[in-house]
Amino acid sequence: xxxxxxxxxxxxxxxxxxxxxxxxxxxxxxxxxxxxxxxxxxxxxxxxxxxxxxxxxxxxxxxxxxxxxxxxxxxxxxxxxxxxxxxxxxxxxxxxxxxxxxxxxxxxxxxxxxxxxxxxxxxxxxxxxxxxxxxxxxxxxxxxxxxxxxxxxxxxxxxxxxxxxxxxxxxxxxxxxxxxxxxxxxxxxxxxxxxxxxxxxxxxxxxxxxxxxxxxxxxxxxxx
Length: 224
Hints:
CATH architecture: 3-Layer(aba) Sandwich
Shape: globular
Distance between the termini: 31 Å
């Protein structure tokens, strides 16, 4: 299965979701390739950190510009799962991946500027669906305030429901220190301590959205 995490705006949490999807699939025993198509290389650093500590990790490769679509297609024939982390605002890469992916997740921060960028992605998805019948594209509200009384999330959700091809998943991930700190440490949110059950549940929901099941959690969390 080919899955991509994409977005027009930086800082929306793309890499955090990409490493969790690929990392949990690898922990489940799948043969996974994480394609780092973001020039910042954060996903690659996350994998290297895990390998140094001998923690289960997906394989990774960096790929940009020309040949990205062909490379993804080739990798999908050799791996159980391919997860692509696309650089922010890389329209050419987003367009290429939409044409071959089975699922694309678009994290959006709950503010007007981020939500407006979905219009372009909605248009690209519409064009891609003409040649890729298997494509599903979802938006996810990410890095939302933990203050549930705020109106930003409800306003963003209302706007996201108006797009035709980018379906709003109805999922919201809050700004959790567990998620923010886990990834730079080379960890998944369920491996981070102290245990943050709310953060785990929110990111788990993305895995279920994409793959239809829950990810394997570390033994101490799953058994508690």
